[in-house]
Write a structure and sequence with these properties.
The complex is a heterodimer of chains A (113) and B (437).
Chain A lengths: L1 E7 L4 H10 L6 E7 L7 E3 L2 E3 L4 E10 L1 H15 L9 E7 L17
Antiparallel strand pairs in A: 1-5, 1-6, 2-5, 3-4
Helix pairs in contact in A: 1-2
Chain B lengths: L8 H5 L8 H7 L4 H28 L5 H28 L25 E6 L2 E6 H19 L9 H23 L15 H19 L15 H20 L7 H29 L4 H15 L8 H25 L7 H15 L12 H33 L6 H6 L1 H6 L11
Antiparallel strand pairs in B: 1-2
Helix pairs in contact in B: 3-4, 3-5, 3-8, 4-5, 4-6, 5-6, 5-7, 6-7, 6-13, 7-12, 7-13, 8-9, 8-10, 9-10, 9-11, 10-11, 10-12, 11-12
The chains are: A alpha+beta (113), B mainly alpha (437).
Chain lengths: 113, 437
């Protein structure tokens, strides 16, 4: 089991979700997050340009069985790019997942995902 | 607004020399302070409805569009607020008759700022009194501001700001001003269709314009499959509250008096709004086993819109029936929209258009006193007013849509729509780090 964590641009959320659903990946966790990569973003405040130190992003967490890791990655890559890829499009992290437990049934491991 | 435009008598008979002292003017043109005070208050009330509308609409869209949507209402205050003073009042209430009215002295309101024309004649208990003409002009201006702002709900979340600004400026000049002139300013519908405070001129025209723009611009990306959850219903409820309060100025102010008619208009406004809210609440409780906050405030709006054309001419019993009818029919219309699948995002047609039509036609059945020419003819006058307003608003809006889209760009680019109007059009964010929707 792996945990696929993707940090993407907020405006790509809908397209990434649609792409994941097309790949039959339905169970995801979405959160709004901030961070700093290579991208900068400026807001306007009464005519002054202000550069917030941290940029708003969307974080997707997808726990999946090993067979699905590449499918999930491809689905995200397909939808998260602006044009053919721009600074700020985000990153995908894949980390090993030690255990997964469904609270309702107490199932564990691959069945619970 | 069932008045005819009385030109001040002094102007007609040349009773007063320009530049007379204030004391002289106050003798020749006795100001009715009660009416003046109430009209000033009403003017402020109706302006308060515009931020109220901004909150109402702003709460209903997704987080990424909250500022862009609220700006639609605020931009109307900025744009129409200037246009009205420059030429809007002259086009609606100028003395010449035709497609629009005109009066050179109303240009920039210069002729009514001082001198004999600065007094607007009203009748108080049979006696001739005056209010400052500027109060009347400013009161009317607030109606011109809110009407284009209403339309914005139909194409929420998917238009460019520049295109929107040009659209409402042109719409106000070419659709609203002629309609207001025809119904209130002495044009060919004046004295025929009863439209006390703007059912035909404001709500039906805005509703139809909303439908046309929604159809022309197309759906929001993802509609109706993707969920378009309101970002802040709390704000929507507060906005509805402000609208209800402001509506007392809208309807009771339209009596241009401070007396019995004012009280009658205020009473039926309160009554119809409550009846509409109650009906929607009960409908949802019966059909879904749960009343919703958005349902209740939709009922308030349906009730307020339905009584707008009728406020001076029906009794409280009629107001209750109209409020009930409005909620039932609007509820049906919104369900029908979901079946037909067009994206009138915040139900401008479903509430303002439909309740406006129900009020304009339905009021005939509850008139305090049937006019001398009889019920049947009055019913025809009402239907004629509705049809003229719908047809003119539909054609005018369609032409403006095509023009603005081709020349300036109206529909938002896909990527900007995805990113949200706040970021892509205004480089701002409505909220800090709140939850997504």
């Amino acid at each position: 089991m792996k945990l696929v964590t993707a940090i993407i641009q907020p405006d790509k959320l809908d397209e990434v979700r649609e792409s994941l659903i097309e790949a039959e990946i339905y169970r995801i966790t979405v959160s709004r997050c901030t961070g700093r990569g290579r991208a900068e973003e400026t807001d306007l405040y009464r005519g002054q340009e202000i550069a917030p130190a941290l940029v708003s992003k969307i974080r997707l967490d997808i726990a999946c069985n090993d067979d699905f890791v590449e499918i999930a990655i491809q689905a995200i890559l397909k939808a998260a790019k602006h044009d053919s890829g721009q600074i700020g499009d985000g990153k995908i992290f894949v980390t090993p997942l030690e255990q997964c437990i469904r609270i309702r049934t107490e199932e564990r491991g691959n069945d619970a995902i | 607004m069932k008045w005819n435009l009385h030109r001040p008598l002094g102007a007609l008979f040349g009773l007063v020399v320009m530049g007379s002292t204030t004391a002289g003017a106050s003798e020749t043109y006795p100001i009715d302070t009660g009416t003046t005070a109430w009209m000033l208050t009403s003017t402020a009330f109706v302006l308060l409805m515009v931020p109220g509308l901004a909150m109402f609409y702003g709460g209903l869209v997704r987080t990424k569009n909250v500022l862009g949507t609220m700006l639609h209402s605020f931009a109307a205050m900025a744009i129409i607020g200037v246009l009205w003073v420059v030429c809007g009042y002259a086009m609606c209430f100028g003395a010449t008759r035709g497609w629009i009215g005109w009066d050179n002295s109303f240009f920039l309101l210069s002729g009514i700022d001082h001198g004999p024309n600065a007094y607007y004649q009203i009748e108080v208990n049979g006696a001739t009194k005056y209010i400052p003409h500027l109060v009347f002009a400013m009161f009317q201006g607030k109606f011109a501001i809110i009407t284009p702002a209403l339309i914005a709900g139909a194409f929420a979340e998917r238009v460019r700001f520049r295109g929107y600004c040009i659209f409402i400026a042109l719409w106000s000049l070419l659709v609203y001003n002629p309609l207001a002139h025809w119904v209130w300013g002495g044009g060919f519908l004046t004295g025929k269709a009863i439209d006390f405070a703007g059912g035909t001129v404001i709500h039906i025209s805005a509703g139809v314009a909303g439908l046309v723009t929604a159809l022309y611009l197309g759906k929001r990306r993802g509609y109706p499959l993707a969920t378009m959850t309101p970002n802040n219903l709390v704000m929507t409820l507060m906005g509805a509250g402000l609208l209800w309060v402001g509506w007392f100025g809208f309807n009771a102010g339209s009596s241009v008096s401070s007396g019995l008619l004012t009280a009658q208009a205020l009473t039926v406004t309160q009554t119809a709004a409550a009846a509409g809210a109650l009906t929607w609440m009960v409908l949802e409780a019966l059909l879904h086993k749960k009343a919703t906050s958005l349902g209740l405030v939709s009922g308030i709006l349906a009730g307020l819109v339905v009584i707008t054309p009728a406020a001076g001419d029906v009794m409280p019993g009629g107001a209750i029936v109209l409020g009930i009818l409005a909620s039932i029919i609007c509820y049906g219309a919104i369900n029908l929209k979901s079946k037909l699948g067009y994206d009138d995002s915040l139900d401008v047609l479903g509430i303002h258009g439909v309740a406006g039509i129900v009020g304009a036609v339905g009021l005939t059945f509850f008139l305090r006193s049937v006019p001398d020419h009889g019920f049947g003819l009055q019913l025809w006058y009402q239907i004629e007013g509705v049809l003229v307003s719908m047809t003119y608003a539909a054609i005018g809006t369609l032409i403006l849509c095509v023009l603005v889209e081709k020349v300036f760009g109206f529909r938002l680019k896909k990527e900007d729509e995805m990113a949200g109007m706040d970021h892509s059009l205004h480089s701002e964010h409505g909220y800090g780090l709140l939850n997504l929707n």
